[in-house]
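Per your request, structure below.
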């Protein structure tokens, strides 16, 4: 079990958020197989074609894999729950309906989930993308995440290759290689993601810079579009996002900019703009957690896999608009990430205020420095998600400009 939350010496950030009312799906149960009832509480629904859609895809993938192992799953999926007391009601509803495992899919759900868990000690509660349940002293609470920063790094490489192509062809000057990033909140998960994306882009396009605009919401289609358009007005010719909807992609297409996505393949709605995307394959985790429960084994307290285990995947490359050689480069970087020869947060590749990052300290659960603080920076790299599954990289590195205040 991982025991400490990491935070950077330069900037301590809370690992923050993501959340969602009612639908149910069941897998047909055969008499000679094991059936597990699982609740899935979602911040949105599959119509967002992004964040919640990706969870639904993972649900259905896991259901099929488990059925092949003789384990049937009856799902109670509750959609469109807010980061508020309605999340308490949703967890109680799932518990009272007999769910043996209850999965909360948004960061902001965790505090509300934790208000319910002690009343149902026989039920396993899982909080995805969170950072408190694994060390709260309860046996029936769990966290899960994946090393999505690896996929974002690769998406950045794809973006950087396109920008370098435009430079090489004389379509833009080197200083015009500017990325615009639509971020939900200025907390660790988002900062880790856009930093890794930027580092991937700069590894193939040395002149690239980035501007970030936060929208203060995980899922606000209009705000995400407005932010993307504002970034384009600021001179950004490549748009990426850590937000739940497809509107940054369509905004980029409407203005002749390029785009890389998150949670889903967005090339279908922005074929002239969207190059590639990355997502977590939640089916990998759902399969492992539910199978463990069905076999009487413990569900991991703090699960975190990456590209090497298939938990982080790339969406198809839009080769019609990608720079020549991109597919080969993606394969090269994927292999390096999978075998550990490439460190995303190699401290020789970025600076903070002109200085190399050399230290990062752990905090205890009260937010105080401890005498036995873990050091996240060692062997020339910042080691993200090693001490807990949820990201904790929160430094503002040189080359990235935040255009609005933190949320």
């Amino acid at each position: 079990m991982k025991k400490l939350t990491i935070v950077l010496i330069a900037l301590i950030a809370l690992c923050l958020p993501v959340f969602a009312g009612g639908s149910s799906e069941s897998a047909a149960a055969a008499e000679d197989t094991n059936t597990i009832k699982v609740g899935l509480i979602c911040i949105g629904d599959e119509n967002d074609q992004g964040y919640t859609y990706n969870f639904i895809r993972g649900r259905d993938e896991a259901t099929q894999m488990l059925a092949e192992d003789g384990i049937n799953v009856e799902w109670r999926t509750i959609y469109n729950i807010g980061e508020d007391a309605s999340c308490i009601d949703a967890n109680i509803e799932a518990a009272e309906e007999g769910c043996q495992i209850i999965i909360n899919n948004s960061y902001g759900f965790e505090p509300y989930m934790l208000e319910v868990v002690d009343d149902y000690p026989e039920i396993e509660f899982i909080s995805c993308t969170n950072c408190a349940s694994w060390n709260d002293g309860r046996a029936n609470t769990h966290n899960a995440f994946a090393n999505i920063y690896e996929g974002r790094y690769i998406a950045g490489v794809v973006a950087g290759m396109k920008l370098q192509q435009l430079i090489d062809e004389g379509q833009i000057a080197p200083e015009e290689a500017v990325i615009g990033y639509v971020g939900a909140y200025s907390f660790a998960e988002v900062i880790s993601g856009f930093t890794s994306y930027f580092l991937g882009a700069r590894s193939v396009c040395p002149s690239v810079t980035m501007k970030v605009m936060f929208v203060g919401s995980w899922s606000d289609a209009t705000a995400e579009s407005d932010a993307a358009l504002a970034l384009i007005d600021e001179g950004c010719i490549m748009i990426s996002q850590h937000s739940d909807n497809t509107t940054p992609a369509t905004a980029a297409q409407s203005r002749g900019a390029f785009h890389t996505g998150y949670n889903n393949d967005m090339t279908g709605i922005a074929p002239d703009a969207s190059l590639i995307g990355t997502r977590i394959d939640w089916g990998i985790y759902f399969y492992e957690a539910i199978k463990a429960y069905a076999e009487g084994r413990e569900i991991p307290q703090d699960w975190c896999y990456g590209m090497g285990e298939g938990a982080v995947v790339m969406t198809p490359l839009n080769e019609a608009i990608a720079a020549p050689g991109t597919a080969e480069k993606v394969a090269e970087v994927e292999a390096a990430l999978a075998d550990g020869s490439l460190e995303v947060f190699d401290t020789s590749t970025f600076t903070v205020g002109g200085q190399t990052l050399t230290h990062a300290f752990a905090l205890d659960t009260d937010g105080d420095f401890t005498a036995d603080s873990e050091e996240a920076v060692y062997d020339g790299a910042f080691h993200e998600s090693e001490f807990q599954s949820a990201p904790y990289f929160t430094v503002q590195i040189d080359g990235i400009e935040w255009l609005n205040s933190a949320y």
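Residues 1-32, 362-372 have pLDDT under 50 and may be disordered.

Regards,
D.
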